[in-house]
């Protein structure tokens, strides 16, 4: 057992201001001989809700669109996500899931009834993107499906019939309706969420009430494919609502679920009414954003401790199926569409969260960033045929080397990044290894916006002879990619690291993310 979370550092600087030399030094110890749990690939999952322009315009354009597509789905979006080796995609919500009635989204599109998306802008939803279109997207991406069912306004029968429609090979009513709609072979649905945010937009329920509903609805999520049983996720807590986790784990029972969710968004101000700008911010907002992101560590630790009481064998995963930054909407964009830009600050938020998820890999088995395209901390931005990849996208691309890797603990000692009497770790690190003799990938973050860090890492039993790497940084804190300048923030080769005498040395530039491969 490691005694110190690798995401956090020993805050060695005294309260008095440290000298520049002290502030610039850090030491790491890589414990290659003390491997930890495996980072499940699903920790790098994504979330696409019927919200704003995420689905319509970002993913779905229809077969008749001039935008290049395959059966209505944007080719550029699919290609970008496949390059990330996307492991899982969550759909259709989010708050939308608990007002979505799946039968409205099947059959000939011109005959599908419209609905009002009451949660997100009050727009009319034509239901042209439904079950068949989502599963087509899953097959194009080559990833697993995570479907969220309607508990808030749906019935157990509706949920049961949806699972039958998607996964049953039998000569049965729902399976035959699927065949009549053009799909003979059942789909594989690996993950199924029984409701979303039932404590809020999903029904404003008490945990006791939801726990009983979970037991009821979950009964009807049948396994029609015995070789590929569905993993069922209970709706978990919002932020630090530890009573929700305690109650649901106790009443619903660990033996009835494969996972329980957690939602935590990074809001720089902590004020939902005035969250701050995604593009116009000073160092104080940079600091507060990273500071609030790092709270994810204690939140996960506290929920995990509760889960340990009811599930000491860790059979139930903690599913962080909504996370990321949430700012005020961009000026001029529709209300309820949750459109924001994505800067270097968001890239660091993503990297720090991945380090935390790795630290808790025994319990965190999936995480889904909100959201995939055009909404909140998106991977991709589109506007008609225009297309751009965000800084966050590039963190996913750089960090995909950690998918399925075994965690190697990293102990870090460095001075703090301090603002007034508040301080956060200046250096964050995580390392994984695939296979017994595979390369080690060491990822590093320097949170300080203007000071480099001179870093020395003891490699211990690791007999690495060479090192290569990539770096993601930019001139400004709010550097971003736009349609006119889509490559302003993009990783480049990093050759500033060297190995000698079982030590790795490098200078970690300010406000940067570096991923090294040690062989």
What does this structure look like?
By secondary structure, the chain is of the alpha/beta class. It folds into 2 domains: 10-37 and 407-518, Immunoglobulin-like (Sandwich), CATH 2.60.40.1180; 41-404, TIM Barrel. It is built from 11 helices and 28 strands. The strands form 7 sheets. It has an 8-stranded parallel barrel with strand order 3-6-9-10-11-12-13-14, surrounded by 6 helices. Strands 1-18-2-23-27-26 form a 6-stranded mixed sheet. The radius of gyration is 23 Å and the shape is globular. The two termini are 25 Å apart.
Under the CATH scheme, the architecture of the largest domain is Alpha-Beta Barrel
Overall average residue pLDDT:
95
| CATH-derived topology of the largest domain | TIM Barrel
In what range is the share of β-strand residues?
A: 25-35%
What radius of gyration results from the CA coordinates? Answer: 23 Å
Task: Tell me the distance between the termini.
Answer: 25 Å
Strand order, largest beta sheet: 3-6-9-10-11-12-13-14
CATH top level of the largest domain? Alpha Beta
The biggest sheet amounts to:
8 strands, parallel, barrel
Instruction: Indicate the low-confidence ranges by residue numbers.
Output: 1-23
Integer count of domains: 2
Number of helices: 11
Q: How many strands appear in the DSSP assignment?
A: 28
Q: What class would the helix/strand composition place it in?
A: alpha/beta
Identify the CATH homologous superfamily of the largest domain: Glycosidases
Overall shape: it is globular
Helix content: 10-25%
């Amino acid at each position: 057992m490691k005694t110190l979370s690798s995401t956090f550092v020993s805050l060695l600087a005294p309260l008095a201001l440290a000298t520049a030399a002290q502030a610039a030094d850090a030491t790491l110890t890589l414990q290659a001989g003390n491997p930890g749990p495996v980072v499940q690939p699903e920790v790098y999952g994504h979330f696409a809700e019927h919200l704003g322009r995420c689905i319509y315009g970002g993913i779905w354009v229809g077969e008749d669109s001039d935008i290049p597509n395959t059966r209505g789905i944007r080719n550029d979006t699919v290609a970008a996500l496949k390059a990330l080796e996307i492991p899982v995609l969550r759909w259709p919500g989010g708050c939308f899931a608990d007002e979505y009635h799946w039968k409205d989204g099947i059959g000939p599109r011109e005959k599908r009834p419209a609905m009002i998306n009451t949660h997100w802008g009050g727009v009319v939803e034509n239901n042209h993107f439904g079950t068949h279109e989502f599963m087509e997207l899953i097959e194009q991406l080559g990833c697993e499906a995570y479907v969220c069912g309607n508990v808030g306004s749906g019935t157990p029968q509706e949920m049961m019939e949806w699972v039958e429609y998607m996964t049953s090979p039998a000569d049965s009513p729902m399976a035959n309706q699927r065949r009549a709609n053009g799909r003979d072979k059942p789909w594989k649905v690996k993950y199924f969420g029984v409701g979303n945010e039932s404590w809020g937009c999903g029904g404003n329920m008490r945990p006791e009430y939801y726990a009983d509903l979970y037991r009821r609805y979950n009964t009807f999520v049948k396994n029609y494919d015995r070789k590929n049983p569905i993993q069922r996720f209970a709706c978990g807590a919002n932020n630090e609502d530890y009573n929700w986790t305690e109650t649901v784990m106790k009443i619903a029972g660990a033996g009835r679920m494969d996972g329980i969710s957690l939602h935590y968004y990074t809001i720089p101000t902590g004020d939902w009414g005035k969250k701050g700008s995604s593009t116009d911010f000073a160092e104080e907002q940079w600091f507060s954003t990273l500071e609030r992101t790092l709270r994810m560590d204690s939140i996960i630790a506290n929920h995990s401790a509760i889960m340990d009481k009811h599930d000491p064998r860790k059979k139930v995963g903690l599913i962080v199926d909504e996370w990321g930054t949430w700012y005020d909407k961009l000026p001029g964009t529709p209300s309820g569409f949750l459109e924001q830009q994505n800067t270097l600050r968001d890239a660091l938020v993503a990297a720090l969260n991945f380090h935390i998820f790795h630290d808790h890999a025994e319990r965190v088995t999936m995480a889904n960033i909100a959201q995939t395209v055009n909404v909140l901390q998106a991977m991709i931005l589109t506007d008609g045929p225009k297309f751009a990849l965000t800084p966050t996208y590039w963190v996913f691309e750089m960090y995909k080397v950690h998918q399925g890797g075994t965690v190697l603990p990293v102990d870090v000692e460095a001075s703090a990044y301090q603002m007034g009497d508040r301080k956060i770790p200046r250096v964050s690190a995580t390392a994984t290894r695939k296979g017994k003799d595979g390369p080690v990938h060491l990822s590093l973050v320097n949170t300080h916006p203007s000071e480099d860090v001179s870093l020395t890492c003891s490699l211990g039993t690791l007999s690495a002879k060479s090192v290569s790497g990539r770096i993601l940084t930019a001139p400004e804190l709010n550097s971003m990619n736009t349609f006119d300048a889509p490559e302003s923030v993009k990783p480049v080769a990093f050759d500033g690291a060297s190995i000698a005498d079982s030590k790795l040395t490098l200078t970690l530039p300010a406000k940067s993310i570096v991923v090294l491969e040690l062989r």
